Amino acid sequence: MKMKLQKGLNNLGSARLIIIGFVITLMILILGLGLQMEMLLSQALTRIVMNGILVLAMVPSILCGVGVNYGLPLGIVCGLLGGVFSLEWGFTGMTGLLVAMLISIPPAVLFGWLYGMLLNRVKGSEGMIATYVGFSIVALMCIVWLALPLTNGDLLWPQGDGLRSLVVLSGKYEKVLDDLWSIHIGTDLVIPTGLLLCFGFVCLLVFLFLRSKAGVMMKAAGANPGFAEATGICVDRYRILGIILSTVLGAVGMIVYSQSYGFYQFYNAPLKMAFPAVAAILIGGASNHNAKIFHVVLGTILYQSLLTFSLPVVNSLMPGGDVSEIVRITVSNGIILYALTKEGGKA
Amino acid sequence: MRRIREILTENIVTALFVVLCLFAYIASKQQFSFVLSEVMSRLMRNCVLVLSLIIPVIAGLGLNFGIILGAMAAQISIIVVLFCNLQGMLGMITCFLLATPLSVLLGIGMGVLFNKAKGQEMITGLIMGFFANGVYQFLLLIVVGKVIHIENADLIIPETGGVKDTILLSASMQSVIDKLWKVSFDRVLMVMAACGLIWLLYQMVQAFRNGDKYRAYWKMCCGILLVGCYGVTLVQPSIRFAVEYCDVPVVSMLLWMGVYLLIRFLSKTKLGQDFRAIGQDMGVANSAGISVDRARITATIISTVLASWGQLISLQNLGSFSTYSSHEQVSTFAIAALLVGGASAKKATARQAILGIILFHTLFVVAPMAGKNLLNNATYGEYFRTFVSYGVIALALALHAFSKKQKRMS
Q1: pLDDT tens, residue by residue, B346-381
Q2: Is the pTM above the cut of 0.80?
Q3: Do B394 and A136 lie within an 8 Å CB cutoff?
Q4: Do residues A343 and B113 lie in contact, with contact meaning Cβ atoms separated by under 8 Å?
Q5: What count of other Cβ atoms lies within 10 Å of the Cβ of residue B136?
Q6: Which of B94, B102, B125, B213 is buried most, with the most CB atoms less than 10 Å from its CB?
Q7: How far is the CA of A8 from the CAs of A2, A285, A298, in angstroms?
Q8: Closest-CA residue to A329 (of B83, B204, B189, B134)
Q9: pLDDT tens digit string along A90-110?
Q10: Could you give the ipTM of this predicted complex?
Q11: CA distances from A140 to A108, B224, B333 (A)
């Protein structure tokens, strides 16, 4: 028993133990400061699950050998595109959400395919190129948002042209998943059952895919490209498959995220959205070569609860001043930086 | 013919950009004088920042996305100087004196990190910039105000005590360096043409003495071309007007020329040779007895310090800055400009930097008007130029990786 515990702790690694310890300290501090724990818990839960799929999008790209997908904005803009058309054609409720997802998948497959082909040509320096491909696509989509021939007044600026930078989803499909079969415990603690089920379902799909023949071959291609090529696996094709999957998950994840958040954010908003997702999966124990769904779940739980819990504590210790953004930037980039220096040390 | 094709494929980014610039310039229908003076002032403003990227490239660190840290050091020192109420030239010199040690410290920290993440320096620098941005905001919004209390109506937001969003230098340090000595551009051109002619003549005579006739004729052709170009600026009315209309801040120009000479001088010294050896092959350099880690840290320090100077020069020219966002785009724009000039993550020269700034900023100046004329909305042009600055980095890095892979295959 003791051995098992020891082994489990070793598997977690010191960095994760420190962060777990930090989150627990924050929770104790919150109780000590007399802040409302229930509301924070349900807030944290919602944020964990709404970000989950975006983090899950990292798994296929890591396993197929590309590494963490800094080009996630590519998938995100596809999700936004689906969202725009679902709203333009006036779909609401669960249908609206599903239509948005359905519309977003074909462009995500197309973009992912092209992007995968590009990444196959630049093996070895994917990280930087992926980041800047993501940035450029966000800037390019800014032009598209401005130019889309839309007619729905809810989507357009009252005067002037182009899409609004923030489209409100209330009355359309805000929180349709969150409120589906949601369970209220006490006054403030809400469990978003629908959202949880949705995340679980997508995780299950990815899990099944990774156990399927294609998934196993993709993992082999990512783990040891030379060996895989020798056994007759077309490595490049499986890398493209992984990237397509990652992009599609990014698109779907963005729609799920937005319905929970209550807004679609356009223009420059998706620019840096890849970094929190990268940070979350790295905190969960993934590396640039290996990732499991467990890492996604643990990482998202740790990362999002760290952010949710640290905020009221910092605010009550130092009232006034907008700290949330600062905490978010420092934590997520600090984690990525730590992972980068650790990996470089090994090489 | 084959040689021309080779040159074109090697400089495809620059060639594409020249075409793009010409197209956007024609579409924008703007006065040549306006474009020239805008590009000139942007060249003076950004040159040192772009030049600060060159040393890390030589030392094999790639494009230093961490120059943002230098820019932050510059902004912090300006805020401190304004708080101390130092004005004019004295204030500016104090800024330089403060920013230098601060950026040396930051450079050391960043260099250590780069050594821990060998092979991943660019992405580490980028993330480092984002991380430092968080720390910077924490310092200026939370530490100033919550921990240190400062009373200064020009600098501090009264409600929260943090540093204000926009900081004006108009009353203190606006263009103190630029104002020292301004000369109209035609004079500068005259001096430059004269110097160039003398230099070419000298080289021609040298070549004749060495018996290298082709070289001598080539230099003579260059000289005639130079005189011809200069002649055009005197004769063609719109160019002549533009050249007379445009002012050049001589001291800023001398400053960046100084930095340029410093970089050239550095690459001739022992340190510079070490950098080049490391850039070629880290393992070989190490076994040749060069202490690789130290030299890489030195390169990062030089780059960060130059970046902080560059940001100071640029901010005194602009006359105001937004505390929490002026530095954010510094590395993107500087790197995009350098890459447009034909540099890559492995090779960069000062000449490419200057060509790159001219091309990149020409597009920046004309893109909004081109967007307005072509699509009836200036915002298109603005988004387009953001797209171009990100896209050019992606494209140049991808092309570089692509050619590297092809070379390895062959």
Answers
A1: 888 888 888 889 988 888 888 888 888 887 777 888
A2: yes
A3: yes
A4: no
A5: 24
A6: B125
A7: 10, 13, 14
A8: B134
A9: 888 888 889 999 999 999 999
A10: 0.82
A11: 15, 44, 17
Contact call for B397 and A128, based on CB within 8 A: yes
Identify the residue whose tokens are 């963005």: A254
Burial class for B408, CB neighbours closer than 10 Å (0-12, 13-18, 19+) = exposed
Tokens describing residue B374: 């072509």
C-alpha B259/C-alpha B253 separation (Å) is 10
Predicted pLDDT at A263: 86
Q: In this complex, is the C-beta atom of B325 within 8 Å of any C-beta atom belonging to chain A? A: no
Position A345 pLDDT exceeds 50: no
Mutual orientation of helices A293-317 and A193-211 as an angle, nearest 10°? 140
Q: How far is A162 from chain B (nearest CA, A)?
A: 10
What is the pLDDT at residue A337? Answer: 86
Partners of residue A129 in chain B, C-beta under 8 Å: 394, 397-398, 401
Name residues 306-335 of chain A within 8 A of B (Cβ).
318, 320-323, 325-330, 333-334
Q: How many whole angstroms from its chain centre is CA B250?
A: 17
Neighbour count for residue A6 (Cβ, 10 Å): 10
- Taking the C-alpha atoms of residue B338 and residue B98, their distance in angstroms, rounded to an integer, is 28
Which A-chain residues 269-308 have CB contacts (< 8 A) with chain B? Answer: 272, 275
Query: Chain A neighbours among B 90-129 (CB < 8 Å)?
Result: 113, 116-120, 122-124, 126-128
- Torsion sign (Cα): B142, B144, B148, B154: negative
What does the alpha-carbon distance between residue A225 and residue A212 come to, in Å, rounded to a whole number?
19
Hunting for tokens 């920042």 — which residue is that?
A: B49
List, as ranges, residues 75-114 from A with C-beta within 8 Å of B.
none
CA–CA distance, A77 with A86 (Å, rounded to integer): 14
User: What single letter denotes the amino acid at residue A264?
Assistant: Y
Q: Find the DSSP H helices in A234-283.
A: 235-261, 274-283
- For residue B62, which phi and psi values (nearest 5 degrees)? 80, -165
pLDDT surpasses 70 at B213? yes
User: Is residue A347 pLDDT above 50, yes or no?
Assistant: no
Q: Which among B130, B379, B391 is the nearest to A333, CB-wise?
A: B130
